[in-house]
TrEMBL record:
SUPFAM superfamilies: DNA-glycosylase (SSF48150)
The protein, known as: DNA-3-methyladenine glycosylase I
Single biological process term from Gene Ontology: base-excision repair
Residue numbers binding Zn(2+): C14, H27, H179, C183
Pfam families: Adenine_glyco
Molecular function, one GO term: DNA-3-methyladenine glycosylase activity
Transmembrane segments: none
Keyword Zinc attached: yes
Keywords assigned by UniProt, alphabetized: Metal-binding, Zinc
Source taxon at top rank: Bacteria
Length: 199
C-alpha cells in the first residue's frame, strides 16, 4: 500500500495508517524511530513474532496486555518462565494464545541472554546489520538483510524469526526508514536516525 492517507492534522501519512485510527499514534511516534534499548528491542521482535499470520491491529490493541503477561519483556525474567507460566499465558484472553509463539518467546529470551554475552547487547548485534540507506523505501516484505539476520538467529536457536518477521522488526526499530517520501513523519525519522549514536 504505497498511497498516503491524510492524518488527523491534515498532513500525509503512510497509507497503512488508514487501516485503523489507532495506527496514527504508533506510526507518528514509534515506527521507524531508532531504538537501542535491549528490552524494547526484545519486545518489538516478540510482538512481530506474535503478529505472524495476524493483523498488526490485533497485536497493537493487545500490547499492554502482552507487557503485563510477559513481565514487560524483561529478558532475564522471561527466560525463567516455566511450564506453569505457559499454562497461565494460554489461559490469558488478553494476549494471542498460541502455544508455539509463547514458547518461542521464552526460548528466545534464553537465546537473547546468550547473544548479549557474546555481542555485548542486542542493540549492538542488530545495528551491525544496518543496510545502506535507500533514497526510496523498499516497500517489501523481506530483504537480503532480513534474510541474513533471520538465518543467523535461527542458527543461534531463535524461533519464529523468519525473514518477513525480521523485516517488520527492522522497520519498527528503525534499522531502516520505510516511511514514504511523501509521509510527513519521514523527516522526523531521518533526523532521529542522523542524531542516533549506533551501539
Amino acid at each position: 500500500m504505497q498511497a498516503t492517507v491524510t492524518g488527523p492534522d491534515g498532513q500525509p501519512r503512510c497509507g497503512w495508517c488508514g487501516i485503523a485510527e489507532e495506527f496514527f499514534g504508533y506510526h507518528d511516534t514509534e515506527w521507524g524511530f531508532p531504538v537501542d534499548d535491549d528490552t524494547r528491542l526484545f519486545e518489538k521482535l516478540c510482538l512481530e513474532s506474535f503478529q505472524s499470520g495476524l493483523s498488526w491491529r490485533t497485536i497493537l490493541n493487545k500490547r499492554d496486555n502482552f507487557r503485563v503477561a510477559f513481565k514487560h519483556f524483561e529478558i532475564s525474567k522471561v527466560a525463567k518462565f516455566i511450564d506453569k507460566d505457559v499454562a497461565r499465558l494460554l489461559d490469558d484472553p488478553g494476549i494471542v494464545r498460541h502455544r508455539g509463539k509463547i514458547e518461542a518467546v521464552i526460548n528466545n529470551a534464553k537465546r537473547a541472554i546468550e547473544l548479549q554475552k557474546e555481542a555485548g547487547s542486542l542493540a549492538h548485534y542488530f545495528w551491525q546489520f544496518e543496510p545502506e540507506e535507500l533514497a526510496q523505501p523498499e516497500m517489501v516484505s523481506s530483504s537480503a538483510v532480513s534474510e541474513k539476520i533471520s538465518k543467523d538467529l535461527k542458527k543461534r536457536g531463535w524461533k519464529f524469526v523468519g525473514p518477513t518477521t525480521v523485516y517488520s522488526f527492522m522497520q519498527a526499530m528503525g534499522l531502516v526508514n520505510d516511511h514514504l517520501p511523501e509521509c510527513s513523519i519521514r523527516g522526523a525519522v531521518d533526523s532521529a536516525r542522523r542524531a542516533f549514536t549506533r551501539p
